[in-house]
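Hi R.,

Here's the chain you asked about this morning:
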Amino acid sequence: MKILGIESSCDECAAAVVEDGKRILSNVVATQIPFHAVYEGVVPEIASRMHTEWIYRVVQEALQKAGLHPAGIDGVAATAHPGLLGSLLVGLSFAKAFAWSRNLPFIAVDHLLAHLYASQLAETPENTLSEPPEYPFLGLLVSGGHSIICRVDDFDGVTVLGTTIDDAVGEAFDKVSKHYGFGYPGGAAIDTLARKGDTHAFNFPLPNLYKGEHRYDLSYSGLKTAVINQLEQFRAKKGTANQEAVKIRSEDIAASFQKTAVDILLRSLFRAVDDTRLTTIVGGGGVAANSCLRACLAGHQGLRCIFPPPELCGDNGAMIAGLGYRYLKRGDRSPLTAVASARVKAFKRRYP
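And here is the predicted structure, written out as tokens:
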């Protein structure tokens, strides 16, 4: 079964064709980064307009690279939530129109569940994943909008254990990068800069979340404030009376911030490992491409850590098509009246 997947939840206009929920026949992502870089952040109005201009060509290219005509598609899947509402409506509307015109089954899917499914798409003509993750496992969903630790019992069976009480980890990366002018997108800019820095140059604080229902929760507001407004307070090396003050290097700020951001994630994640006794961890979302996070988990004995290839960590149509296949195979269908939604309540927590 060949599924066309369309993803337009933010600033990536993406379409892909996936066969039987695993084999990627095509995966086209048209990035809007150059249009948003001047603002150092995504402008929703620009994003939705660019999706409107690009969606037809992106889908056409995905079909061409898969070597298919529209008649070769067996079903259509599209992101319905969460995301920027204007952007979501473009992709969702196009997918519904495509399905209606070809009399194909249509399914609207959750963007976050698709990120957790992305690791099962490693089976391609060039790369075969011999042992896909078996349920249940712990999911680590980290992006610009979400930071979630969850138990995953099936492709659509997720129990949230912990989530951010304020900023998402990717949001913290973006705001720190914007403040210091490290570059855009912030996650990739800091990851690159941090490779040349000292992770011990600054002793940034960890949030005090460990009691009751917040045992697995995360917080990045305090870290962001410390890095942006209280940098001098947390310097590990400040010089002496007989020495010049140690110069503050951008590389050291990036490295120390990134290491602390990852430590916050891992502290809560390892609590979940201890309590659930689940030793398989599956990552997803844009921050799952972070080299520090991957290295720290890869070096942890006793855990099996599975991450999608970097190109499948960000928003893409392949993960939508792969997840959509699972729903359609089960017999699920979405009505053509399905609507987009900017948020998913289950993935947010209020504090206190």
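One quick note: Confidence is low (pLDDT under 50) at residues 124-128.

Cheers,
M.
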